[in-house]
Amino acid sequence: MSGLKEKIRRFHGDESGAPEMSTVMIVALIAIPLVIALILFGKKIYQWFQGGITELDGQSSGGSGDPGHS
Questions:
Q1: What is the largest CA-CA distance in the chain?
Q2: pTM exceeding 0.70
Q3: 42 near 49, Cβ under 8 Å?
Q4: What is the Cα–Cα distance from 60 to 64, expressed in whole angstroms?
């Protein structure tokens, strides 16, 4: 039983990978909410951008809607 306690103490005291692990955790804490937001609101974001692109396309081509034929 004392061997197990010693292994746990050594494992707990080992901080050789701590900086890398903290970097991974920070990236995960940023990426996970973004992925959840894209899953929940992806279609609305797509439609919003499509509406903006259509509006810009109509303004830039003189209202024809086709940038190749103004």
A1: 83
A2: no
A3: no
A4: 9
Buried b / exposed e across 9-32, counting CB within 10 Å, b at 16+? eeeeeeeeeeeeeeeeeeeeeeee
First and final C-alpha spacing in the chain: 83
Q: Indicate the residue type of 56.
A: L
Return the structure tokens found at 60.
């830039």
Question: pLDDT in tens for each of the 70 residues of the chain?
Answer: 678 888 877 777 777 777 888 899 999 999 999 999 999 999 999 999 898 888 888 877 655 555 555 4
Give CA angle at 39 (37, 42), nearest 5°: 85
Taking the C-alpha atoms of residue 58 and residue 51, their distance in angstroms, rounded to an integer, is 11
